[in-house]
Amino acid sequence: MSESRIDYSLYLVTDRGLSRGRSTLEIVRAAVRGGVTCVQLREKTGSTRGFIEEAVSVKAFLNSCGVPLIINDRVDVAMAVGADGVHLGQSDMPLAAARPLVGASMVIGISAESIRDAVAAQAAGADYLGVSPVFTTPTKADTAAPLGLAGLRAIREAVKTPLVAIGGLNCSNAAEAIRNGADGIAVVSAIVAAEDPEQAARAIRREIDTARRPWV
Amino acid sequence: MSESRIDYSLYLVTDRGLSRGRSTLEIVRAAVRGGVTCVQLREKTGSTRGFIEEAVSVKAFLNSCGVPLIINDRVDVAMAVGADGVHLGQSDMPLAAARPLVGASMVIGISAESIRDAVAAQAAGADYLGVSPVFTTPTKADTAAPLGLAGLRAIREAVKTPLVAIGGLNCSNAAEAIRNGADGIAVVSAIVAAEDPEQAARAIRREIDTARRPWV
Lengths: 216, 216
What we know:
Two copies of one chain form a homodimer. Chain A has helices at residues 24-33, 48-65, 75-81, 95-102, 115-124, 148-158, 174-179, 189-192, 197-212; strands at residues 10-13, 38-41, 69-72, 85-88, 107-112, 128-131, 163-165, 184-187.
């Protein structure tokens, strides 16, 4: 396991299909201005070359502002573009196969839908866990039943690995996810599909920051 | 460029959609019994984990009979399973990005649809070229106009890299592709969709062997 150097606070996951015709780079730039601390590029359609070209352009921007880039699923794309991390779902490459390819310095995030997934991923050396779905999500059709805040908290009690809550997260529930053990909030549609992604990101970031400083 | 250790003579490319409900492993076993010398696994749908699991099972069989395994597109899958090679189309990872990841020992094949593609791929260190489409093919909808035998010959004259002819190849035209400069014949539907893949492979292999020994 590599030392985690990533601030997971507000973790954007891209989705071209929800972007209302705006480019992924355009969404990412706006979201980072609004306070996103980490970006995961997720491209489930299109060619490998197109994914690499997009990742290269997004990475050039992110490097200029010190925000890390994580690639969904494609270990080869992550390696080719020198991404900071790769995110692997339970149907992607197993962590034990990916670690020898990417080495110790690349962050590997694993999707966990249960305590069992989370404990296994921690034991295998995951750098962070994407805990999902915390709430009902419109983004993915194939997910399990929502874990809820109690499910998130139970995973928090079971593992020490940083947890990123994902699934139906938005301005109205980000704070309670933080208070129930999430180290970060992953957002897809609440930013990507927003009329104003920058303002949407800023509002969620404010909720996260406030939830961490209950004394303010 | 690595020393090519692969016999490209009869090069099977899998296609689950054409397999009439038979498993890829079943097709591969029959095709190897019929004389296939090299297998490329091509999986354009399904999960990464599913692709890896299939590749592991096909590789276990191929290792037992000394036939090399090449993975289509997915450099990460090729690395994870320790494949002999990876085949990259013009929309896949560029060779220059893939070589540092896979090292010198893994074979990299590149699709070439023109003399220009072929010369560029040779210069970049491709281990072999998939020259396509030589004939009209029912397998892929997005290919360029067929090169024909004259186009294959022109590429043969332009490069020294081993050439594998692909696109509409079958028992009736394999021999003329060999006589026009192909080092091997890549076959999809003529084996994968055949009533008897073993017999289909054997018949094509016989054509190839005969075309190489015109004195017999």
